[in-house]
Every structure is written in C-alpha cells, then in structure tokens.
Design brief:
homodimer; 339 residues; alpha/beta; 2 domains; 8-stranded mixed sheet; two-stranded antiparallel sheet; 52% helix
Chain lengths: 339, 339
C-alpha cells in the first residue's frame, strides 16, 4: 500500500504529484472531467504546461471513469479539488474508501451552504460506517503550486485530530526542501487558510488607496494576523496556529501578488467590485465569496457569544462592509483606522 | 505643559516631529552635535531634505547646547537617538528630569554592553530619586520614518508598565492616519523591535539563495514570528505581542527592502559578510550587531532554563551561525529546513 492517490489534476493537485513524484513516491493522479485536457497533455508531452515542469516518472494518470482503478495500492488520498467541488467529490469516492485510508485535504475555504470547513464537509460525506474511522488531515501553509512544483523551499503544516495520521502525511511530503510541521489544530488551520483570502483583499485595498507604502501594509498584515487568531480562538482552536505557517505564513504568501490583492488594489483605486472584476476578466477571487461566508460564520459565533465582531475582527468587518454593504473604501479604511 | 520634547533630530526624530507638528502639537526638537546640519537646513529652508517634507509650524529647533531651554513646558520626552547613544543621552538629560515627565523611547535594539533593552538602559540611567517615578513608554511597530512624515497610514503600539502613560503618549500621537494600540508588555515590544532585524536578514538570505519566490519567504516570515513569540515568552513577556503590530507588523515592514534584507540577499547570492558590507559601502546593518547581542542574551536565558535555542529559535541560531560562526549559507538554510 505505497501509492498516494491525488483527487483532482488541477494546478495544485498536479503540483503535489510532481513534488511527490520527484521524491520517488508513487502517485496515482486522478482527474475530473474538467482535467481531461491536462491529463492528455501530460500523457503526450511528459510536461505540465501550466506549471512548466517535467512530470516525473512514477505518476500514473487516471481519467474520471477510472476512479476505482486509481484506488489500487493506495493508503493516502489527497483531495485537491476546488472548494465548490468538495462535497460532490467526497461522496463520489465513498464506494472505494476503507478504514485504512488517510484523507489529506489541501482545498482552502468555507463551504457556502453549510458554513463549515472543508474537513467538516469531507467528514459529513463519509459513509456512516466509516465516520470517525478514517483520519482526515489538513495541509495548510504558504504553498504556491508552481513554486512547489519547481522545487523551491516550501514549508507546510499537517493538522489532524489524529496526530499519527498527520505525522504519516508529513513524512510522505518531507524532503530537504519541504519542511513540515505537525498540529492537532485542524480547525485553526482550516480557518486561517480560508480567512487569509479576505485579509489579502485588505492588503490590496490599502495599497490601491495609499500607494505602494509599507507602513500601511504592515499594519494590515499585523491586524489580519491578530484577527485570525481571534477567529480561531472563538472557534475553539489554538491562537498559535495563526502566528505560524498556517496564519502569518499563508497570509504573507497570499498577499504577495495574487488575485485577492489585485482586486483589493483596484477597489482602493476607486473601482466598484463589479468594475474591478470586469478589469480582471471575471477571474475567480476567493476572498469575495469567502468574505460573505466568513461573515455569516462569524455572525453565528457572535450569536453564540464566542466572538464580538466589532472588537475582535474590526478589519474583517470593514472588508465585509466594503464588499457587501456598499461602504466606500475611504469610509471603510477610516472606520478601521479611527476605531 | 503642552510641548513634546524630541531628543535627536535624525530621520526618526524629525519624522516624529513632523507628524506631531502636523497635528498641531507643539514640539521642541533637540539635536545632538551630529544633527547640526539638519537643524541648520530646517531653519533655513523650512524643509527636511532627507524626509522631503515641509516642516510644519509649531516645531522649535534646539541645538546641543540648548538642552535646558528645550525642556521648557515639556511633559513628554521622546528619545530618538541611535541605540549606541541611549546610555549617554539618558544620562545627559538627567539634570532636567522631574517626576512629572513621561519618557517615550523609539530606539530599537539590545544594548551591547549590558544585553538589556533600550527601556532598561534608560531606567538604569535615571537619577536614583527618580527611578520608578518617571514612566517609560516604548513606541513599537512598523513605522518607517519617511512614510510617517509624508502622512501615510501608520499604526504603532505604545507599551508601558504604566498604562496611563501609554495612553497619554498614544493620545498625543493618534490622528486619523495614525492608529494606536496600548500594551503593558514593554519587554515584548522591545524584544520584537530588536530581534526582527535578525529575521529580516534571514528573509534576504532566502531570497538571495533561492530567488524571488514567495513560498520560502513566507516560511521565514512565519518562523520568525513564532520564534519572536518564543523569545518574548522566555523573557517573561506576552506571546501576543509578537503576533501583532510589534512583531509581525514590524518584521513585515523591515523585510520589505531595507538594509537587513539587502545584506541577507547578498549573503544568499554567495558573498561573505565582509564582501556584502563592502558592496553596501559599509552601511550600518542593524541585524548584524543585533544577532550577536541577541545570541548572547538568548544564551543567558538558556542558562537560566527559560529557553532552548535549538528547539525555540532554530532559525535565529542559523542566522547567528551564518553571521558569526562561518557556517555557509547553504548549510545554515539546510540545517533549518531539515531540522
């Protein structure tokens, strides 16, 4: 049982496959129907054109109808589909799961229907007899797919209620250029992975509004980190998670360029959300749905008395106001700065 | 008693004066002998050429021999000289101090002779009858002088054992574009302000070694933040201080360009420390002496059983090894990444 199954041959799934393949780890890379072209391309050329890397030996490619075959000799299953697809995919793999499997999710986000984490979506999708039998691990931290595929120094955190499963997953990933951390705070890692998208929009906003200066961005960097710790705390997780790789690290990497920051910058320069998205050719900007879902989640926590939004997440509140309550950028930023 | 005295008319002292002056706060700006030219220039042109800003009304300029006059009508005294000058200056102002004064320090560093914080240097320099009578506040956080002077959004943290004094200082600084935080963790703010210089070198090193990629830098950003929290903790401060403005915020701002990063980048590209400094025209790089002083301080803490360097500050250890123990960049980074 020594192959890793990667569900989803998008940019992240493929990058993880390349990383593991380069380590000599056997990989079954399974694509959804939307990955057909990528799989064709890899089969034909031996390269992943999007990542601009050679696909190492030891990666076997599987098309959507070959899901059962893809499970052969597999213990670790990595789910790397987009957040909208988590529920669907989790159910799709049910027939092939057994209690020896370990599931590792890398998808970041809050599910818009249930306002739960990606891990919770997977857990809820497990067949009844396997609930609490299969360990679920979350891989968080600053991992830009293309940089991982190109073998740049990378660090990730493997979080699970089952520490043994986290260690098992980390061992599979560890390499001289991939540093690993272990945590039991899976909720904390999930929340940081999700919320950092909203704060990355704020980093862009302040840059678009004020210009490319570092005092403002540093202040937003710090405030986002504090608020993520407050959010994790309110959820029952560990504040330390926000301080490290999953919080500060992922927030930093997401703020260095990227679409959240780009959108924020356009907003800061005076565009409406609609105008900004048009300029960006309607690119998917994770922080936009995340801010709405995150707001609803935080409101739930507030109703339970576990957080006070105005006190514990004032910057997030203003991001929400700007994106969803038609608050002007200037008013939103000034509200935060004079709060 | 409504004037603020700023001791030191270097770039930071002058920037603070401009910020306060623009708020309508009366300022006495006192320069050491090394500030004579700056004072002359400001008197003559009404501008600070280094900061490239107009000097607002309400700032009175005092030369070194006019120290006593500079104290007239003053309650808040801001010490903004370089770290090497803290002891000397603290003693120099002794004759004019009384218990109604509040001292605010902005200088960042660890004193090389005593291995104490800047606040401790000031405290130890106070005349006996005023020890524990005068409140000392530290201003920390990401405050680049030229950006503050130009009125960019800025956020700072005012830390003191005397919370009233911290609030008093913050009130003087607060403006619609200067956001303030209050803390009682003055040691934590001091330590973050000092140690971030070393970690900024590490950010530069990884960029110079690996290239301008974000996975590596994000990992170093996170690790530095965690380690600063561990160091603050070991010293008896509050880990949260490292999470916020004083830690993450200042670390971020210091890593965006700046001499620490520049030196690190040159080291990462293969230069020795000596070669790198030559390329930089022997510019002062705070992180270099800070790494030595910080190491000695941490060794003291380790001897007291309050920290375990290899476990709690492995990245700092490698920075020290690289700068002072002739460890190669590759070995240093690999030691950290494979630890």
């Amino acid at each position: 049982m020594n192959k890793v199954l990667i569900i989803g041959a998008g940019v992240m799934g493929s990058a993880l496959a390349v990383h593991l393949g380069n380590k000599g780890q056997g990989v079954n890379l399974w694509g959804t129907q939307w990955d057909n072209e990528i799989l064709d391309d890899m089969k034909k050329s031996g390269r992943h054109s999007g990542l601009d890397v050679v696909v190492p030996n030891g990666i076997d490619l599987y098309y959507e109808h070959q899901l059962e075959e893809a499970f052969k000799d597999v213990k670790l299953i990595i789910i790397a589909v987009i957040s909208k697809g988590m529920g669907y995919i989790s159910k799709k793999i049910n027939p092939y799961l057994n209690k020896k499997h370990v599931i590792l999710t890398v998808t970041k986000g809050i599910d818009e229907d249930t306002l739960t984490t990606m891990t919770q979506v997977v857990e809820q999708s497990l067949p009844t007899e396997l609930k609490n039998q299969i360990s679920i691990v979350k891989l968080g931290g600053p991992i830009i797919a293309i940089e991982l595929a190109k073998g740049k120094f990378t660090e990730g955190i493997f979080a699970s209620k089952d520490i043994e499963a986290a260690i098992y997953s980390a061992d599979i990933f560890r390499s001289p250029k991939f540093r690993t951390n272990i945590s039991n705070d899976i909720d904390g890692v999930e929340l940081c992975a999700a919320f950092k998208n909203s704060y990355a929009i704020a980093m862009g906003i302040i840059e678009g509004l004020e210009g490319d200066f570092n005092n403002p961005k540093a202040a937003i960097m710090a405030r986002g980190s504090i608020e993520m710790a407050n959010i994790v705390d309110a959820f029952g997780g560990n504040r330390e998670t926000a301080l490290g790789i999953a919080g500060v690290g992922d927030y930093y990497v997401t703020s260095q360029g990227g679409r959240n920051g780009k959108l924020g910058s356009l907003l800061g320069q005076g565009n409406s959300v609609e105008q900004a998205l048009e300029i960006m050719n309607n690119a998917t900007v994770e922080g936009i749905p995340m801010t709405l879902n995150g707001y609803k989640l935080l409101k739930e926590l507030e109703n339970q008395g576990r957080i006070v939004l105005k006190r514990d997440a004032p910057l997030f509140l203003e991001i929400y106001n700007i994106l969803y309550d038609e608050k002007s950028i200037k008013d939103g930023i000034n509200s935060y700065w004079n709060e």
